[in-house]
Amino acid sequence: MDGVAFAEFDGPTPRRMGREVERVFDSIINEITSGILSPGTKLNGPELAKRFGCSRGPVREAFRRLEERK
Predict the structure, then answer these.
(1) What predicted TM-score, i.e. pTM, was given to this entire model?
(2) Left, alpha or beta for 40 (phi > 0: left; psi -120 to 50: alpha)?
(3) What are the distances in angstroms from CA 57 to CA 1, 5, 35, 38, 68?
(4) What was the pLDDT predicted at 7?
(5) DSSP states along 22-70
(6) Which of 7, 12, 17, 63 has the fewest Cβ atoms surrounding its Cβ within 10 A?
(7) Percentage of the chain with pLDDT > 70?
(8) The pLDDT value given to residue 3
(9) What's residue 4's pLDDT?
(10) Of 19, 30, 29, the residue nearest 54 (C-alpha)
């Protein structure tokens, strides 16, 4: 990595990623509790990422958190 400093990385910071995961997680929970997402609805990661305006990573992490709540 000649001449490339880590400060030049333009990806999400861990804190920003955490906020994004929380936002997606909360949005999914709100859609479930409000009836927008019906019980048994298959959740599509790429579709939700597009709808929530984020990458698929926060959606995958939100799914993981949802599974922990079972």
Answers:
(1) 0.75
(2) left
(3) 25, 24, 25, 23, 17
(4) 52
(5) HHHHHHHHHHHHTTSSPTTPPP-HHHHHHHHTS-HHHHHHHHHHHHHT-
(6) 7
(7) 80
(8) 55
(9) 54
(10) 19
